[in-house]
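Self-study notes.
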Amino acid sequence: MRPLWTCLFGLVLAVVVGCSSKLDDVRGSDAYIKDVKFVGVERFSEKELLQYLHMGETSRLPWKDRYAFLPANIPVDAARIVEVYKAHGYYDAEVLSITPRVKAGRVRLFTRTPGERAPGKATIEVVVREGKPTLVETIALEFPDGRPGTEVPDPKVAEVALRKRVALVTGRAFEIPLLNRSVEQLLETLREAGYAKAEVKEAAEVQPGVGARVRFEIRPGPYYKIGEVRFEGLGGVPERFVANEVDYAPGKPYSPRLVKKVEANTYGLEVFDTVTVEERPSETKKGTIDLVVKARPAKPQSIKLGAGFGLDPVRWEQRASLLYTHKNLFKNLTRFDLRARAGYAELPSMFNPQEHGPIVKLEPTLRQKGLIEKRTVASLSPTFELGIWEGYQFYSPTMRAGLSRFFTRFVEAELAYNFRFVDFFNVSPTLKGENSILGLDFRDPYTLSYLEPSLRIYLTDSVLRPKNGAILGVVYDIMGLGGDFSAHRVRPSIRLYWTPHWRITFAGRFEMGWIVPFGPKGGAPIDMRFYLGGADTVRGWGLRRLSPQVFPEGCVPGEADCRGIPVGGNTMILANIEARVRATKMLSFVAFADGGDVRAGVNQFALSQFNYSAGPGVRLDTPIGMFRLDVGFRLNQTEYALGQKIWAVHFGLGEAF
């Protein structure tokens, strides 16, 4: 099938009906198959049976395959139907008739050939007599060389466990695909339990219409463990760091899954173009298999340049970005990432810039695994930012140093130290008044020193792109180790994912936040308080607009010329739910519902003022990232909604959560 973009290009230029297998290219046919009807078919669904045949149903979608009606294929497909039934235990099945009905296409206008017709449409009716299936009478497991598990008892390879891996069932139809699957599953079970050279042979005595007797001859062979893990072709990558990633393997029972894990963990270092693992029986230690990891180093450095824009009801920005990466700095697997972004922002929009200014962010990050302890990742990130928000502009140098570690596959813990210095300028007079709800919390400039321990539990099928499961997390900021503020800031969260079908994923998030000031410097800086609204939280609101606000003197909330300044709150609650539907490999559609609220007080909740929004979204998954467009609509009116639009458009990168 041709790529989608070529199909669309062809549609625009040539106004064709389809882009794959054009009917005019198929000789001997002047019609395509519109519908295939099966009569008397109960064992298979229509979709299952069609996948074995030449005939098929032409979709209305222009990028799908088109099936030409060729009379010569009728006897071929009749024979195929019979063979399919035999393979599934129906030895008496027969095709009684295949009847095509062809409707001529209309005469085309504006063609060089007078009277030329468009392709016609064919409907095919297939009548089948299935008959009775031949059932499985007995299933026997035979062990000519002895049963597995004698060297190392393992319940996974006991006869009872092996029988559960047989896909055939006595009293049900004898099917060749299930026979083959049984062999595969028996071999998989034995090899995963350490029997690397296991063999399984199947045999069946079939009397059509009477029954089938199935026999599996199982030869487990010797039991193996993993011996040494050696490396070849590492180039400038130090072996001890690579060995740390696979040090769990030696001494473990051999299994193909373990070998693949060794390969995946080595490749996951991101410093190799290719990684393959070769299995070699040990020459010195009987009963062991050595693994030889063969790698080809990748280029350690890369650079990416890009340009983009941000679109929000209360903020527009245009920016250029740079990402420089060195994956093996100092030749000890230290990773260096330099992210740089520069641009210009307008609030609330480019066409109505009431506030505007440059935006710059320079963020170098050094990261190394194994510097302190072989499973611990150490990181250091000094950052400089120049930015603008409603009511002020600022510049801020910061420093973050952290240690993170996975405990098993599921639990990740991190401890980070942060230092911030923030200097505000072009500050609105509204923020400086001590009689505002901020009080002494607005300090210009300010310094802040705090610890940030966090914990995440991944009960999902994937850490990076989960489809099923839950992610539990909590982040705890302890402010007050120095500087102008002291407070506890806690953010617990849970994310849920469920994929009942590969095209449909349901995702949900629930998050809360508390800021609890303490001591004589009790409070939190304005840029670290809680805000909602925008592309990643409650999408019926503009960026940070779902928040307590302060208003200029004489300004009446709700009037057209009265624009408040969001100042954040000390208590936050957020909930999201999404239905993500994949249309093609790149294109997905989303329906979402969001809710949330932010309150100025400590541990203050106002459930009667909870804010709801919902809407549709589109996702385009490209090699450089996922582009996201969401349109949110507010579903209720609350005190924060005065003067706000009832809808908001957001453009961003990546999923909202």
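Second protein, same conventions, sequence then structure:
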Amino acid sequence: MSGAAALAGCVGGSGSDSGTFVNAYTGNPADLHFNTSAIQNYRWPAGRAVFAPFMKYSFTENEFLLGALDDLEIDGEEVTLTFRDDLAWDDGDEWTTEDLDVQLQLAEKSGSSLWGYLDDYEIVDDKTARLLLSGPTNPQIVRFELTNFLVDTKAETHEQWLDADESEFLRWEWEDPVASGMFSFVSKDRQAFEFEPNPEFYNADNVDIDTFLIDSYGGNTAQHQALMSGTEADAALSLFAPPEIVDQFPDHVVEIQIPAKWGYGIVFNHDDPHFGQREVRQAVAHVIDRESIVENAGPRSKFVTPTPCGIAPRDQEYWLDDWYDDFETYGAGASQTDQAAQLLEDAGYTREGETWEDSDGNTIGGEYYSPAGWTDWTTMSQTVVSQLNEFGFDFSVSTKPTNDWFSQYSNSNFAMGSLYWLPGGSRSSFPYFPLYYQLWEEEIGGGHNYREKADSEQTIPDRDGGEMTLTPLEVTEEIARQSSDEEARPYIQQAAWHNHIELPFLGLVSKYEQSWVTDDEWTVAAEDSPNRQVKWPQFWWVHEGELQPRT
């Protein structure tokens, strides 16, 4: 048994006086690594432990908080990044902009959304760099983008990939990271990641945890039980828990609800003979009763999207403005089977007995993939498939371990399945990010096969019954180039209109994140602290010194 597994098995959260903090999580650490660009087998909790963030966003205060950055100035088309003087790597080397230089080059190679509006950059000195924007850009875009950046690239370890093919870099599994953040990597096995304090971290005085574990509990139910026990786990990073489960948690288990800007949706394979057709995708949208999904899976933390259009639910009215009422809702609280049947008939399908068939006698359906261990997602997937099959589709739910679930989509080995329709986090508040995500979906390598279509001219119905012609990717990229919300809104409206007609994804549900920390032996951020609603408490509170052992 490795050191991580031994610790996970014999020390726990509440009741432990060893200085060990145990995070309950789902996923096999042995299969995961620290190359943040190779998203398929990189998992964010381990990365958040070892890599310092550029900056963060507080939903409590609706403001940005600096991490590795000491200052950020946005002046027209120039963005000046000034990093902390005490930013260093855990091997004792100083961080310099030589590291940033390699990071930005690799971000361009791997198609980072940053380069959608970045023209070039300049290294000013060892701690300062200047991003040169390709045109007028909404400053919020830049700030939100930078919340997604970590100090995760050390020149001497990463420069080997500068001349390699993108595919080679994205397959690289970085197993022994050099840390810039709160913790240094110790080991990993099938049971847990183990970390220890990084003495070179700029806020090292805030870190009073001897051993930090991210422990695999194999699914939501096991994590619930770990929190219920009062002795096994100190925290659960992101864990859905329905009211009947929450009622069983000890009083010292604290829930932190954070706007997720993330949620359950459907991804289509646009090369599939059925779901490559707009009419079939729209029929699916009409059949699904979104409110019943929420009711079945957890109205305590979930809510429907008013119209599937690529924009987070609570942001739609603001951004769509006078276009809002013209959008097709596809029936948020009803299964609109008549509209769905008409669409399929128009596309040449007929209902034979209990199922719809194309002209060759092929039914519409297949395996509908859902992540194993995500109990709320399993419930939502079962609800979706039940509604579709009752209408005449032929699906079966197939749950897969998270890595295999991603692989099905990355390899385009699917027809239609569950996948989050918003990239999540604070940046999803600005429509550019979710709209771009649905067209490109770099997390599955564009495996839904919409990338080429997004870069091609398309003609779709317009609001007045006529037609509009646009290149979706170009319109979406224009959003990021506008210097204000008002200038961005016309492009957002066009991109969202295209999204709700074409449905590259189908957005169904969004939610509040439920994150959990115990406060019997650990301090927690006050409810009015600007750090309270920052993703994620188990990391940012340590960063700020608000999660420490009680004395």
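Instructor comment on the second fold: The CA atoms of residues 164 and 355 lie 49 Å apart.
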